[in-house]
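Title: Comparing notes on inverse folding

I've been comparing how different people in this forum approach sequence design from structure. To keep things fair, I'm posting one structure and asking everyone to reply with a full sequence. Here's the target:
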């Protein structure tokens, strides 16, 4: 990373875009419909991982467990001593457990957008929530590391997520990733997406009600950002995405084109042309893929922020609760002491 202005922290690898669900808020299966049957080969996946050289690889899609060589892809990335997080809706979890062995370098990331009714509506199929919960139980019993991924949309109540996160915490889930949904142009129902101020208010209510010790997979600086306590610009280049069509330009969420190499991606995109106030497509975006890296970069450049990040990452109950700095640098009171935000 030394001497490089743009460098990856996490790579998103999408070996395929096909999926066995049609989630309401997902733009992928709609955007990539013309090449929905295309699959990356094992060698194409490995070449992209080595070319990018990020220490963390998030395997997504589509549903990656549908790829016939997913076990080999994961095993060979792990062999390079990279951390692999495989995102899944869990419908194919039994096969996933057959072809992927437990490892300190590997975690299943199970998609759960809420409790039973909310999640099944989001994925447009009844019974998926129950499968996901059973999958988490069996994965944990078999010794796998398990995280979850929850995308928040408009119309839900904070109390539902208090219950969901407490339950997942008690089930032994290592960490929960949360993020507001992105307003894909391919998604017909744009009213399901949270606007920026709505999202900040919603996340404040959620984090206020989380019991002590709830473990979030997002870094604490990003959790502050979600609540409006920190102001970051997007650093989408920290999380490049490789798909069967190539490297998405500029990011996981927007594809104005595709690059054939990671080097081409880093050097050909006009990064300053994107972000809040620069491109209207970015105005409501608060997704982790654009802003988690921003917090890490701040911590890398400011010793005080780095120490805060470490303390809040490793001490029990400090993932959300604790002191953060607001946009003007003043100390924030603990989230639990904030006044409730009106519904």
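Reply #1:
Here's my take.
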């Amino acid at each position: 990373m030394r001497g490089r202005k743009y460098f990856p922290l996490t790579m998103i690898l999408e070996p395929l875009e096909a999926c066995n669900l049609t989630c309401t808020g997902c733009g992928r299966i709609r955007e990539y419909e013309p090449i929905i049957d295309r699959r990356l080969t094992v060698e194409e996946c490995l070449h992209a991982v080595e070319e990018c050289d990020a220490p963390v690889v998030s395997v997504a899609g589509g549903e990656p467990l549908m790829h016939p060589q997913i076990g080999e892809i994961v095993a060979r990335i792990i062999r390079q001593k990279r951390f692999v997080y495989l995102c899944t809706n869990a419908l194919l979890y039994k096969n996933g457990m057959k072809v992927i062995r437990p490892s300190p370098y590997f975690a299943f990331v199970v998609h759960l957008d809420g409790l039973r009714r909310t999640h099944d509506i989001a994925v447009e199929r009844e019974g998926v929530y129950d499968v996901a919960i059973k999958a988490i139980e069996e994965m944990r019993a078999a010794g796998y590391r398990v995280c979850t991924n929850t995308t928040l949309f408009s119309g839900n109540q904070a109390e539902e997520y208090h219950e969901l996160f407490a339950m997942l915490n008690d089930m032994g889930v290592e960490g929960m990733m949360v993020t507001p949904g992105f307003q894909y142009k391919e998604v017909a129902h744009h009213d399901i997406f949270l606007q920026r101020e709505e999202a900040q208010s919603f996340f404040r209510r959620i984090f206020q009600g989380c019991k002590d010790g709830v473990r979030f997979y997002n870094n604490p600086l990003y959790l502050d950002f979600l609540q409006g306590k920190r102001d970051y610009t997007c650093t989408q280049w920290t999380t490049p995405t490789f798909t069967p069509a190539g490297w998405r330009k500029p990011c996981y969420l927007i594809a104005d084109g595709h690059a054939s190499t990671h080097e081409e991606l880093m050097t050909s995109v006009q990064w300053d042309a994107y972000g809040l106030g620069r491109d209207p497509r970015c105005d409501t975006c608060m997704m982790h893929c654009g802003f988690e890296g921003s917090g890490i970069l701040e911590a890398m450049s400011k010793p005080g922020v780095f120490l805060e990040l470490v303390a809040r990452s490793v001490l029990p109950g400090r993932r959300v609760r604790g002191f953060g700095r607001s946009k003007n640098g003043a100390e924030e009171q603990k989230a639990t002491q904030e006044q409730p935000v009106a519904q």
